[in-house]
Amino acid sequence: MGMVLFAALLVIAVSIDSFGVGIVFGLKNIQISAWNLFIIATLSGFVFYSSMFAASFLKGMFPAHLSESIGAYILIAVGVYLLVQIVIPLKGNEESYKEKSQEVPHLAHILKDPQKADMDDSGAIRGKEVIVLALALSLDTVGAGISAAFIGIHHFATSVCIGAATSGMLFIGAHLGRRLRHVKWIDNMSLLPAILLITIGILKLV
């Protein structure tokens, strides 16, 4: 698999969950401003770049011929972890959460139920909600960044693409969601990033 193709698939894998979140926002008429989309793009790109930068120092500790395999296994591990977090019900009392609307939700909860990102039920994502949403959308970005460093893709260009794709998918999803009447299939959208990361990791090993 060529580096450009790998980078493109990685960008899609770590940003596609933003599309599903955006659709739910559109259906629930939850607003998010252009400025906050920019903040989410910046944070997503920064998290990816930081994880790649940190992992680049670890890469030198391993033989060159092992680096790509290590990166592939990390991708698979991240994908499996995300899959487990999504499929297995998270611990916690849902009724207690509803009583404390200002409480910051578990990040994985947001991916399963994006409406929880609007913690104050204001109908808009703002303030600390923007940071929480950005972190939730970056759950798979840290592991992907570490993997990308071991495999050797370009740090800055990929980080910019991931930031742009994350906010772009969120924006497109929100607009599309306003035009949809039902969203039954969106429940499975959160599974796609995990499945894609596992698939990319396996393809890199083959």
How would you explain this protein's 3D organization?
The structure is a single chain. The protein is mainly α. It is 71% helix and 0% strand. The protein has 9 helices and no strands. The protein has helices at 3-27, 34-59, 64-87, 94-99, 107-112, 128-137, 141-151, 155-177, 191-205. Helix 2 crosses helix 7 (141-151). The N and C termini lie close together (9 Å). Residues 90-102 have low confidence and may be disordered.
Helix/strand layout:
Elements: H1 3-27, H2 34-59, H3 64-87, H4 94-99, H5 107-112, H6 128-137, H7 141-151, H8 155-177, H9 191-205
List descriptors.
206 residues, mainly alpha, 0% strand
Mean pLDDT: 79
Helical content (DSSP H or I, runs of 4+)? over 70%
Summed up, the helix count is: 9
| Low-pLDDT runs | 90-102
Beta content: under 5%
Task: Tell me the total number of β-strands.
Answer: 0
Alpha-beta content class:
mainly alpha
- In whole angstroms, the N-to-C terminal distance is 9 Å
Radius of gyration: 17 Å
**Net shape:** elongated
